[in-house]
Amino acid sequence: MLSQHYKKAVTRCACMLFAGTALQLFMGAVNASLLAYPLGIVLAANYLYLLILISFNKEKWKWTTHFTGRATYITSLTAMLVLTIIFGLVRQDGAEGAMGALGFSQMKNSWTFNIFLLHFTSVIGVKAIDDLRNIRKQKLHTAVMHTAFFIILLAGIFGSGDKQRVTLTTIQGEPTNTGVAEDGKKTELPFIIRLKDFSLEEYPPHIHIYADDNLSKEHIIIKEKGDSATLGKWHIECKEYLEMAGCKPGDSLYRPMNHVGATTAIQVRATAGNDTVEGWISCGSHIFPGSALPLPDGQMLAMPRREVKKYLSQVEVSTGDEIKNFDIAVNSPATIGAWKIYQSGYDNARGRWSTTSTFECVKDSWQPATHTAMWLILAAGVFALFANRTKKKRK
Amino acid sequence: MTMSWDIFYIYATAAAACWVSGTIFAFRNQRKGAIATSLIGSIIFLIFIAGMWVSMQRPPLRTMGETRLWYSFFLSLIGLFLYIKYRYSWMMAFGTLMSVVFTCINLLKPEIHSTTLMPALQSPWFVPHVIVYMFSYAMMGAATLFAGYLWLRKSPTEASDEEFGICDNLVRIGWAFLSLGMTMGALWAKEAWGDYWTWDPKETWALATWLSYLLYLHLRPANKNQNLLFSLLIFSFILLQMCWWGINFLPSAQGTSIHTY
Ligand code: HEM
């Protein structure tokens, strides 16, 4: 049997579900950009103040039981779990139909989800403030978990309107400060980026068997002249390896070439039993055609475009007062104030010869708060492991 | 000799033989023999993993098959650790059983492995993120088996406080690791793409898994309802499977996840 507390908590969830559905039907999806600066931060401050008031006035204010107590947080947690599972089960493509009407096909912008999330955040917020007020009596890692998680949710909700993401493609040597925002609008950035140089490193070539319009999964790797390996029934030997090569139109012979557009070409000898085939294989580039080596059985030896290992843009960023140089690569963005510049792409057709580089510039003013909270979680997570152990020893 | 999947069966058989004999020792109450033999099995397994790391020139953490290696390895260690700590032989048996099952899957379903690692994966977060998750999955596997055993065993007794305590500890440790893994993933995503969280299907299911175990942890202090708690643990583990590999087959996630194996 459900206790009185649980009945109330479940009823509250039903009301939130009803309200969320009604809002979704009448107003459409939630628009996060409404929370842009300064509204977001002002609301966040007031909200935090309200939660502190709730924490301090629990005895006086009867209605605050909506945000405290076992039944409340168990129910809230369960509701978040159920919504998250629906989130995972329904394709997030914004499709219409029943799921669309409820907002579930675009869950992160749905009223129901956001109302429940806000309630969940309030519950954990009050708990975090309670924990901090009674920090002596509280298990430290539990208090830290509650607080850090609350900060993350707070920054995530009220900071969502301040997030800006601008995609910007630079051409080598030409300074630019204009990119395209997520909504497709041209956006000017508070800094100018100039691409000084773009470089790209590739993995050694892979040789596959090409048959029936399919590349075999099995492959060999050729790193230099003299390498040999077995692929299917073929023994393959590399007679010549050219990192930078080209060939004349109509020709099947590759020659060393130190020029824009140069491609990788290898000359191989393939033997199987009495069959021997010799010739060039190349992945080609935007200038030179690729070439596969036909085998007597109708199959071919082919080299797909080499996989990319690393790519890096050397850029100069000027903000008006100062000029800074950065090497930007995937997983190593540059930081300019509240902005971060991420390497996102290049001219795929030209590959290593690309003279353009694409960046994503992201502004996230709330990042320091979120970042700190995440490191707190890491610390609390590690601490929790030891805390559990010491507790048992004492017993 | 360079390590490769072609010779995995040698290491797998040797390790499995050690784990199984360790378990037999455990049931015969030969504690030292059990611990030593089982540990040797895990070390043999670790040598294979380390060898793969060297020969592939990248951490073996990218494909399903590679993550299953770590899963087997951690399960064997967890089974051993639980046996050392709680002296239940069947805990080692569980660890052995699960490790062997996952090893067999790797033997039966060999995958072609490439040595390349796309730029986004080249991050200091890669190794800790995945290893922490694999350890947590193994811990939760142990918790699930234990809960299932307590729940379904023949004797009609309710789980004792001590048994519940062991279960709670497994979930606590597993959950702490889930939190670590998730947070590292978020910090990494920020570094790689500029967002901590993008509701990618993998992330959504990871959150569902994490919430589900969190619910268990919050229910427990005032609750000893076996049916509720143990079914919640088993349900949580189903969510975990969804996050680990289920999304590869889930229609709603097709073509939308950047976390593809
Ligand atoms: C819905 C909001 C939440 C509320 C009201 C809440 C409340 C509580 C309460 C009352 C406890 C019992 C222990 C104590 O008070 O010292 C607890 C324990 C705990 N909570 Fe929460 N919690 C919430 C969400 C979370 C979240 C999101 C996390 C994760 C970041 C979390 C992590 C923990 C942990 C690790 C424990 C200790 C569990 C244990 O060791 O058994 N809680 N929480």
Descriptive report:
The complex is a heterodimer of chains A (about 400) and B (about 260). Chain A is an alpha+beta fold. Chain A has helices at about 5-25, 40-55, 70-90, 100, 110-135, 140-160, 365-395; strands at about 165-170, 175-180, 185-200, 205-210, 215-220, 230, 235-245, 255, 265-270, 275-280, 295, 300, 310-320, 325-330, 335, 340-345, 355-365. Chain A has three domains: about 5-160 and about 370-395, no CATH class; about 165-200 and about 310-365, Sandwich (Tick-borne Encephalitis virus Glycoprotein, domain 1); about 205-305, no CATH class. Chain A is built from seven helices and 17 strands. Chain A is elongated, with a radius of gyration of 30 Å. The two termini of chain B are about 30 Å apart. Chain B has two domains: about 1-110, Four Helix Bundle (Hemerythrin (Met), subunit A); about 120-260, Four Helix Bundle (Hemerythrin (Met), subunit A). At the A-B interface, helix 3, strand 5, strand 13 and helix 7 of A face helix 6 and helix 7 of B. Protoporphyrin IX containing FE sits at the interface of chains A and B.
At a glance:
The complex is a heterodimer of chains A (395) and B (261). Chain A is an alpha+beta fold.
Biggest sheet features of chain B: none
Using DSSP, what is the number of strands of chain A? 17
Coarse morphology of chain B: globular
Q: Between the first and last Cα atoms of chain B, what is the distance in angstroms?
A: 28 Å
pLDDT below 50 for ≥5 consecutive residues: which ranges of chain A? 390-395
- What is the tally of helical segments of chain B? 8
Rg of chain B, nearest Å = 19 Å
Strand percentage of chain A lies at 25-35%
For the largest interface, the chains and their residue counts are:
A-B, 53 and 51 residues
Q: Return the average pLDDT of chain B rounded to an integer.
A: 89
Tally of distinct domains of chain B: 2
How many DSSP-defined strands of chain B? 0
Q: Portion of residues in helices of chain A?
A: 25-40%
- Could you state the order of secondary-structure elements of chain B as H and E? HHHHHHHH
